[in-house]
Amino acid sequence: MSRGAFILLEGCDRTGKSTQAQMLVDRLTQLGHRAILWKFPDRTTGIGHMINGYLAKHQDLNDQAIHLLFSANRWEAVEQLANHLRSGTHLVVDRYAYSGVAFSAAKGLDLEWCKQPDVGLLKPDLTFFLDMPIQASMQRGGFGEERYEKEELQTRVRDLFLKLREPDWKVVDATETIDQIHEKLTKAAQETIQTVASRELQYG
Ligand code: T5A
Ligand code: NA
Questions:
Q1: pLDDT digits (tens, 9 = 90+) for 79-113
Q2: Where does the Thymidylate kinase-like domain lie (predicted)?
Q3: pLDDT score for 1
Q4: Closest ligand 1 atom to Cα of 95
Q5: Which residue in 2, 19, 41, 114 has the most C-beta neighbors within 10 A?
Q6: Which pLDDT tens digit goes with each residue over 49-73?
């Protein structure tokens, strides 16, 4: 049986990741695939509740502790994610370890230290980086409510994402229309679905 593809959407806040992730799941489903959405942080778990409390500014934690909780929130999902992929279900994942490293390093933690807790996780087969100027994303709905939604921090996060960028990332202009971006993502996702069908799951 062919395995599912792990498709990741990354980017700074308000670049349209959740909008596109949901649209991609719906489109793949319409095309006859089995596809599900998975969002990190997954705020529904015990660890996720702690992360939510921190992001909503109800609870303070030091930078190292919250970093490890974000990573633990990925580790607690790893078997479920792998099982979905093995059963042929595609995963459209809204943020993952690159966000984990970029946000914590932007706060001043050592970059190499930040990478360590995520070493060995399941790896994405396709990564989209939705990119746009911070000034423009700040104009979008809802910006400014959560802990990290500040211009200076987001600017550092963007620089760090560009530093973490891997050669196979698809950098997407997030200022294009929702439909234009959706078409690009769909095309690339379909190509990846074909190429990974008979490939082993990737960890790293
Ligand atoms: N974090 C996360 C860490 O520090 N470490 C970690 O390990 C992880 C996983 C919450 C915070 O946690 C940090 C990063 C974050 O600061 P979250 O729950 O993913 O992470 O954050 P959310 O608030 O859910 O999402 P974002 O702020 O990142 O927004 P999205 O999903 O990028 O954007 P979306 O789709 O909600 O769109 C935002 C607005 O823009 C409009 C939408 O309609 C919406 O109003 N929009 C567009 N407008 C014009 N043109 C387009 N192309 C548009 N696309 C969307
Ligand atoms: Na989102």
A1: 999 999 999 999 999 999 999 999 999 999 999 99
A2: 9-184
A3: 81
A4: 9
A5: 114
A6: 999 999 999 999 999 999 999 999 9
Q: Helix, strand, coil: what percent of the chain each, to 5?
A: 50, 15, 35
Distance of CA 17 to the CA centre of its chain: 8
Residue type, 197: A
Q: How far away, in angstroms, is 16 Cα from ligand 1 center? A: 6
What protein residues have CB closer than 5 angstroms to ion ligand 2? 18
Cβ atoms of residues 34 and 157 within 8 Å: no
Cα 40 to averaged position of ligand 1 atoms, centre (Å)? 11
CA distance 133 to 135: 5
H/E segment holding residue 158: helix 151-164
| Nearest atom, ligand 1, residue 40 CA | 9
User: Would you say how long the chain is, in residues?
Assistant: 204
